[in-house]
């Protein structure tokens, strides 16, 4: 990996983590991924549908947040950029496009 690449990728992951945490907070999703609605939250069909949409979006954001936090832990462990399946190094271009990538392109292609 190029000299500047790991630090740049770590910074991007940190920024994305902060953005996701902020989005989750704005959606009313607290620690642990639970929706934090107040007692006055209405129970109409419309509100129930909107709550379902918020839960779905929140689930997607939480999944992405977990992937990013996992990548940050790999930085700390010194295993960032290593494919979880074959153990080979993930190509720089793939990491630049997807900093939280867990698999090299070959292993990712086989899983599809």
Radius of gyration (Å): 18 Å
Largest sheet data: none
How far from one another are the termini? 27 Å
Provide the β-strand percentage band: under 5%
Q: Which structural class do the helices and strands define? A: mainly alpha
Low-confidence stretches: none
Quaternary structure state of the chains depicted: single chain
- The percentage helix is 55-70%
Average pLDDT, rounded to a whole number, is 84
Overall 3D form: globular
Give the strand tally.
0
One letter per element, helices H and strands E, the order comes to HHHH
Total of helices = 4
Protein described:
- It is a single chain.
- Helix 1 (5-27) packs antiparallel against helix 2 (45-77).
- 62% of the residues lie in helices and 0% in strands.
- The mean pLDDT is 84.
- The chain has helices at residues 5-27, 45-77, 92-97, 105-111.
- It has 4 helices and no strands.
- It is mainly α and 112 residues long.
